[in-house]
Design a protein that fits this description.
With 348 residues, the chain is mainly α. The protein folds into 3 domains: 51 residues, no CATH class; 88 residues, Orthogonal Bundle (DNA polymerase, domain 1); 172 residues, hpI Integrase, Chain A (Orthogonal Bundle). Helix content is 42%, strand content 9%. The chain is built from 13 helices and 6 strands. It has a 3-stranded antiparallel sheet with strand order 1-2-3. The chain has a 3-stranded antiparallel sheet with strand order 4-5-6. A hairpin with a 4-residue loop joins β4 and β5. α3 packs across α5, α7 crosses α11 and α12 crosses α13. It is elongated. It starts with 8 loop residues before the first strand and ends with a helix.
């Protein structure tokens, strides 16, 4: 069958090839009158090449986009999407992208389930990482389909397994906390464990604390996330961890917790390269996750007593942890209230 003029063509390449048929279109002509082609793709069967040619002539899709690699699609997507989401979400996507090194340079249109599953099986150590990588793959496929780069979402077919049993959230014991203090000068990153224990912050909250929002004179930080009550709350600084925070403080850096280059650290980088090595070196009798520190703070605050034996009131504990209260959010943090929070945190 003869194809119409300007429609493009299909030809078979010489040699023993897995995909010998090439579909291409004419995009312009040289001064000599010979055509300049653009390749649509290579195919195992002539029928497949003809189908691609028909699809191009029906849709006039951007041929160059079909040649974009996984890394290029990620960059195009992230350039616009990162403007709309939080830094913690960005850090999560960046971590997931780094796990996909095996497919960075493969054309996105050529990626199949086997490539994606290899990433999951060989480069994603935990269920939470596998889940994060799948989320990234899903959004990139959605972006690619929206822009007619692919027609099939291969990320739907990968398997990430099931989560392992989560440790029971056992608070750090007094003996374990003492052991952490005993090693504060010998184990890299152990100071962050103490900061978490004596503030009740979640990991992402600690990783997002900005140096400009630390008030050393009145001993508090502004930070927090997750809920309206938790965001932009006053986080009192105990006298016990004040030296640790001062040692971390560097006005040249935006964030309190940074890597060796002064760049922010993602949750997954913190957990893998700081938390897990610290716990491995301490060899504590009970297994602990980062969230255990928050449970420890609650326990310590609930058990603390003032000079006259009075407990810390429940409302103050809620303020410290960023839990919802009935108090008007605009009136929560008066100067007197901040002093109360600081006094309470000093009791633990």
């Amino acid at each position: 069958m003869r194809l119409p003029n300007g429609y493009g063509g299909v030809s078979k390449l010489s040699g023993n090839r897995r995909r010998p048929y090439v579909a291409r279109i004419t995009v312009s002509y040289r001064d000599t009158g010979t055509p300049i082609y653009k390749t649509l793709g290579y195919f195992a069967k002539k029928e497949e090449a003809l189908q691609e040619l028909v699809k191009y002539n029906q849709t006039k899709y951007n041929v160059d986009q079909k040649k974009l690699t996984f890394a290029e699609i990620y960059k195009d997507w992230s350039d616009s999407h990162y403007k709309e989401i939080s830094q913690s979400a960005i850090n999560g996507y960046k971590m997931a992208y780094k796990k996909c090194t095996k497919i960075h340079n493969i054309r996105f249109a050529d990626i199949r389930t086997v490539h994606l599953q290899r990433v999951i099986d060989e480069d994603c150590e935990t269920y939470s990482i596998r889940k994060s990588v799948r989320v990234l793959l899903n959004v990139l496929y959605k972006y690619a389909m929206k822009n007619d780069i692919v027609e099939k979402q291969y990320s739907k077919y990968i398997s990430i397994g099931k989560p392992v049993k989560v440790y029971e959230k056992i608070p750090f014991s007094d003996e374990e906390i003492e052991e952490i203090w005993n090693n504060k000068d010998t184990i890299n990153g152990i100071d962050t464990v103490l900061i978490l224990i004596y503030t009740g912050m979640r990991i992402n909250e600690l990783l997002q604390i900005e140096n400009a929002k630390i008030n050393f004179e009145e001993r508090y930080m502004i930070g927090g996330e997750k809920t309206e009550a938790g965001r932009d709350r006053v986080i009192p600084i105990s006298t016990k961890i004040l030296p640790l925070i001062k040692a971390r403080y560097n006005p040249d850096n935006k964030y309190l917790i940074v890597d060796d280059q002064g760049k922010p650290i993602s949750y997954y980088a913190y957990k893998r390269y700081i938390w897990e090595p610290v716990m491995e070196e301490l060899k504590l009798p009970n297994p602990h996750t980062p969230h255990t520190t928050r449970h420890t703070t609650v326990t310590m605050l609930s058990n603390a007593r003032g000079e006259n034996g009075e407990p810390i009131d429940t409302l103050t504990i809620k303020y410290i942890l960023g839990h919802k209260t009935d108090t008007d959010i605009t009136e929560r943090y008066t100067h007197r209230r901040i002093e109360q929070l600081v006094a309470a945190i000093d009791l633990i």
